[in-house]
Write a structure and sequence with these properties.
Strand content: 5-15%
CATH class of the largest domain: Alpha Beta
Order of helices and strands: HHHHHHHEHEEHEEHEEH
Number of strands: 7
Radius of gyration: 36 Å
CATH superfamily of the largest domain: Histidine kinase-like ATPase, C-terminal domain
Length: 366
């Protein structure tokens, strides 16, 4: 029922003529009902209102469709003031003319009628008795139009900003895909050179991850449980490469696995730990990953050891999007609802991330 009412309302809103007819009807009926509450005769009110309606219509539509768009919006303020003065004069004179020659006879008045010359030359009655009544609807219409224009402009701005954000996120996520694949294929290349028995398992893990990244990650949000499984696959994949040389712990505690999160952010942080930590440490590298989600709040800690003196990187393997990409995605997806802190020491690097997952503005607008 509510949906059908909304649909009817939308159809009416699209019909400008119908909207104007309904608005004027509401104005006239509202004014008559209000005046009747003060004890005025209904017949007199109806005749009076319709006598004023013609000059009010002329003043309103001349202001809305000529004076505002042709003069005010084009900054022709002098011409606007001149036309406003002339319009006010003629519509007020028309209102007085209709009252004297239509309203008063309809009410049975036998008062002597002012001549046309008097009606158009006596300015005091026009300003004191008719101008305000004629220009109440135009003033109301201008206020409503300004409010509507402001609302439409704000809506368009929000829509453009949303589309720009989505486009930028798609670009950032597209950066992550080849970045991750490049690193993993390098690992696979090394294993195949040495004809390692680990290569088939790595290929299977990689296949599962690529399938997830190109299917599930098209959505704006994915479940935390799926992201945890992605992390586990990636960790298993890297452990095949490093073996016992790497000490890695991955602890996770999630109260509701269906809680959603923007895809790939968690993975890119862990990938960064391997890339800048374990890959350059020929000794016994260590990585610690802690993930908890409680009541829509995510806490994420990733710690990795690193060598005190960085090795030369002639292939730019370690020069990548890394943390900068993560920061930009968080700024777009969770503006004002996340906190990212990094702590770097000569032999270690730690990243702490807290997110209010239920405050994703993109998800709310979708």
């Amino acid at each position: 029922m509510m949906k059908s009412v909304i649909n009817i309302g939308n159809d009416i809103a699209k019909n400008r003529v119908l909207v104007h007819v309904l608005a004027w009807t509401a104005f006239v009926v509202g004014w008559i009902v209000y005046a009747a509450l003060w004890g005025n005769p209904i017949y007199e009110l109806v005749v009076n209102k319709f006598c004023y309606l013609v000059p009010q219509l002329l003043a309103t539509y001349f202001l809305l469709y000529y004076q505002l768009p042709k003069l005010v919006y084009r900054k022709k303020y002098g011409w606007f003031l001149l036309s406003l003065g002339l319009a006010a004069y003629f519509t007020s004179a028309l209102a007085r003319l209709i009252k004297i020659y239509v309203y008063e006879p309809a009410m049975g008045s036998n008062l002597p009628k002012d001549s046309l010359y008097d009606i158009f030359t006596q300015l005091f009655p026009l300003v004191g008795q008719y101008l305000l009544w004629v220009y109440i609807p135009p003033i109301m219409a201008v206020i409503l139009k300004l409010l509507k224009d402001h609302f439409v402009e704000k809506q368009q701005f929000e829509q453009l900003r949303h589309e720009k954000t989505i486009a930028e996120l798609n670009f950032l996520q597209a950066q992550l895909h080849p970045h991750f694949l490049f690193n993993t294929l390098n690992n696979l290349y090394t294993l195949t050179i040495y004809k390692s028995e680990k290569a088939p398992a790595l290929i299977l893990k990689l296949s599962e991850m690529v399938d997830y990244m190109f299917k599930e990650c098209k959505e704006d949000q994915v479940s935390v449980a799926k992201e945890v499984q992605l992390l586990q696959n990636y960790i298993d994949l890297e452990l095949l490469r490093y073996g016992d040389r790497l000490t890695l712990t991955f602890n996770h505690q999630i109260d509701d696995p269906s809680t959603t999160i923007a895809p790939l952010i968690l993975l890119s942080i862990v990938e960064n730990a391997f890339k800048h930590g374990a890959s350059g440490d020929l000794g016994q590298p260590r990585i610690e990953i802690e993930l908890s989600v409680q009541k829509g709040r995510l806490h994420y800690r990733v710690f990795n050891t690193k060598v005190a003196v960085a090795q030369s990187d002639f292939t730019d393997f370690k020069k990548g999007i890394g943390v900068d990409n993560i920061k930009r995605q968080l700024a777009l997806r969770y503006p004002g609802t996340h906190n990212l802190v990094t702590q770097e020491e000569p032999t270690s690097y730690e990243l702490l991330l807290d997110i209010h997952l239920e405050a994703n503005p993109l998800q709310k607008r979708a």
